[in-house]
Design brief:
Length: about 525
């Protein structure tokens, strides 16, 4: 970290634990940090910096010594990857020929010390490795690296069981083109979205668009592997890993008082505020924890790291590069980020217990604003099946009524998210005329048929979770993980799928594994 007055590694580890941070990526292999992280159960990534790339590429002995000194020497630290270089094509393109040889030598060293299964070799890539990132369907790698570098690099990642890793920065795209990009689109806030005419898919945030541009770019490559198209190129690996994503906070670098030092922020974008950074990072974390994938790859498993842990007053480059931190170097938070139960940054008071507050449409705003927010809610987790033609809550057929239904469904699912850029508000008395899709006419649930056995239930459960059901609540730590039985997990997944698909009899079939009931099921503390 390039920061003065930075707290010591043991204090940093305590900071990580207090905030529920379970993975960290280091930009070197700092001995103090690796020692402090031992026996903490925190997964750690270490880096071979760009300045050592040529040495690692040219000498298997150097690579072996580096791995022995910086990985094997810390058996109590859960090192899970080595990042070889950082944004080489972008930062030091002259080192491009050395990148893959260095990765191969580090991999060989890991094999020789018996750590290749536990520690994977990756390299973070900047998005300008693509010639174009929007629309996503036109994403492709630059001609100078596509076949000569990216194809063999991806083959290497395939063979070693590793992953392609990128750095995604919607903030930087907005900073450079504020007149062309909607800030709400950058921050995961309600917006009218962007259509990819190549696929017909709508994008409501730039992060998803960037990730899908990489998916499309990878699919355009042909593999050089002797065994044909590998796991990544064939599309069977729908994971999306990133080493960096974040947003500048513009809040000073050494502590809250430094925010008044305008001299150090002369070139910082107006979008670089603690509130915007908080919104972006909380919404990104929430997206990852929900497991919603992307429009093009809805089942993609996304994982990565927020950049960065601390503001860095000693970092060279653009002024805003110094203020991406979640914390000041002394450990004081720049703003609150929740790595366990994030949700978007609250713009409204925290609601009272579930069932005693509702999110309703603001009829004073324009129909267009309501429609944009309605589309956003339905595309980002709200179950809007009940307001489709012929369904329980389609009437009254007005934008206000439909928006109120969608907003409230989104609000109840997201534990208190009701803003929609002023298009909605929280009320504490049930609004007159509120349509309840679970009223008697639609009071039905889909539950597991235990007679078919656990094997069939698991297959049907996997199908439901892979085809639209939100299964985050039955993951470890979720509200319906316990009781930890196949019946409970399958019932939850089946019922969520059933609700999202109009509560039709067919949507609760699952090849005989599901059945409709008309009394609300309850399993322990889990109520469907």
């Amino acid at each position: 970290m390039m920061a003065s007055k930075l707290i010591k590694p043991p204090a940093v580890v305590q900071l990580l634990k207090r905030n529920g941070i379970t993975m960290v990526h280091l930009y070197d292999a700092n001995p103090e940090a690796l020692t402090a992280l031992a026996n903490t159960n925190i997964k750690v990534g270490v880096s071979l910096p760009n300045q050592y790339l040529a040495l690692a590429a040219g000498s298997t002995l150097y690579a072996l010594q580096w791995v022995q000194s910086n990985v094997k020497a810390y058996p109590g630290t859960k090192i899970n990857h080595v990042a070889v270089g950082n944004e080489v094509f972008h930062q030091q393109p002259e080192l491009t020929p050395q990148l893959l040889p260095a990765m191969k030598n580090i991999q060989a060293a890991l094999v020789s010390v018996g750590l290749a299964d536990a520690v994977k070799v990756v390299t973070p890539i900047a998005l300008d490795a693509l010639t174009k990132s929007f629309p996503p369907s036109e994403g492709q790698f630059r001609d100078d690296i596509a076949q000569s570098v990216m194809r063999p690099l991806i083959d290497f990642l395939d063979r070693t069981g590793s992953h392609l890793t990128f750095n995604y920065y919607p903030y930087l795209a907005y900073r450079d083109h504020p007149d062309q990009i909607n800030l709400d689109y950058v921050l995961f806030r309600p917006n009218k979205g962007q259509l990819d005419k190549g696929t017909g898919l709508m994008y409501y945030n730039m992060f998803d668009a960037m990730v899908d541009a990489v998916f499309h770019a990878v699919e355009k490559l042909s593999s050089s592997s002797e065994h044909g198209r590998g796991r990544i190129l064939s599309g069977s690996d729908s994971s999306a890993s990133f080493i960096e994503s974040g947003s500048a906070n513009g809040g000073g670098t050494t502590g809250p008082a430094a925010a008044d030092n305008l001299g150090e922020q002369k070139s910082v974008s107006a979008a670089a505020t603690p509130a915007n950074a908080q919104t972006y990072n909380n919404n990104l974390i929430s997206k990852i924890l929900r497991g919603t994938g992307t429009p093009y790859k809805p089942n993609a498993v996304i994982s990565g790291y927020i950049f960065s842990l601390f503001n860095e007053d000693l970092k060279p480059g653009d002024d805003d590069e110094r203020s991406f931190g979640l914390f000041y170097p002394n450990g004081t938070p720049v703003y609150k980020v929740d790595f366990v139960n994030p949700g978007p940054a609250p713009a409204t008071p925290t609601p009272t217990p579930a069932g005693s507050s509702w999110c309703t449409a603001n009829a004073a705003v324009s129909d267009k604003q309501l429609q944009d927010a309605l589309d956003y809610a339905c595309a980002n987790g709200a179950d809007c099946s009940a307001i489709q033609p012929g369904k329980t809550c389609y009437q009254p057929n007005t934008v206000v009524a439909h928006a109120s239904y969608a907003f409230n469904d989104f609000y109840q699912r997201k534990s208190g998210t009701c803003d929609f850029n002023g298009a909605a508000s929280i009320v504490y008395q049930k609004p007159t005329g509120t349509c309840d899709a679970s009223a008697p006419a639609a009071a039905s649930w889909c539950v597991a048929n235990t007679a078919v056995g656990d094997t069939r239930l698991q297959a049907a459960l996997d199908y439901a979770c892979s085809n639209g059901a939100d299964c985050s609540a039955i993951q470890r730590g979720g509200r319906c993980f316990d009781p930890d039985t196949k019946e409970v997990h399958a019932s939850y997944a089946f019922n969520d799928y059933y609700k999202r698909n109009g509560r039709t009899e067919q949507s609760c079939n699952f090849d005989g594994c599901g059945s409709v009931v008309h009394q609300q099921p309850k399993y322990g503390n889990c109520v469907l």
